[in-house]
What does this fold into?
Amino acid sequence: MRLTSTTLGKVIAGAVVGASLLTSTAAFADTLALSSWLPPRHPIVVNAIKPWAQEVSDVTEGRVKVRVLSKPLGAPPAHYDMAADGIADITYGLHSFTKDNRFERSRIGQFSFLGDDAVSGSTAFWNVYSGALDAQAEHEGVKLLGLFVHGPGVLHNNVRPVTAASDLEGLKIRVPGGYIADLMSDLGAETLFMSSGEVFEKLSRGVIDGVTFTYEALTAFKLTDDLKYTMRVPGGLYNTTWFLVMNEGAWDGISEADRTAIEAISGAAFAERVGAAWNAADEAALVAINEAGIEITDAPATLLETIKSKAAVHENTWAQAIAEDGFDGAAALKDLRAQTGVEY
It folds into this structure.
């Protein structure tokens, strides 16, 4: 068929319109991949990550969608860099898993005696770390969407009740890295770093004697048959700090209006959502822990004082380190504890 100038003009015009429609459609339905490494039925995935992903679609009227992958795109410790490098659009994980010092100020949320529930703890952590401690500056290459902590961290083992620091000597304890690894070493335990998913095999085979974990982790990772004793302290023996981040380029590709809508359901709102999910999971786990016959005891006063004295050393060292960059760690930690209601 011979194309006249008029016909050719129509073809070109049609192509331009078609390309415009394709571009418009792509912008209207950006689908972002969220790499999730916790078990698919983990309460945080079911009651926080997936509901947040759905709400992103809701508040952007379908223009931005988040697909939570059924399998992770990499190992848990790699998830921050996966988001920064664009391997995944969105990831979550523990700051301590990176095993370096790029998140030094996040350590504020890992100390002992911080809070007795995950809602107040996560909200306070978001408020203080993202505020006075400028968390975004430590999260290069990503948009920081969420910060949170779990419920009070406790110590579980299958060898003996822990009523004094001497009871920890020789025990091989799994730690998630960070502050609690240092504290447990100070108290005499032999620490081994591993991700949550590795614990079941190592514990059942006797490679480790115990774990620093939340209550919910015992049921989430099927550990109740291999543990006998749990030791707790007011406000938690420790905590872990978590991030929810999006690749910076992916974030910049979203319209300003949709970014504003996503921010409204993230930050403090996400901290409250994930904290509530963790509280509910801890409560349910305590029922299973009691049914399994695991003995839960409070640290005696003398052990509590030992923990406080060793914890204070780490808090002071951390505060001095971040003071070099102009941050008041002691004031920030005092503010965080005031927000969670812990007397210290």
Summary: The first strand starts at residue 30 and ends at 35. The mean pLDDT is 91.
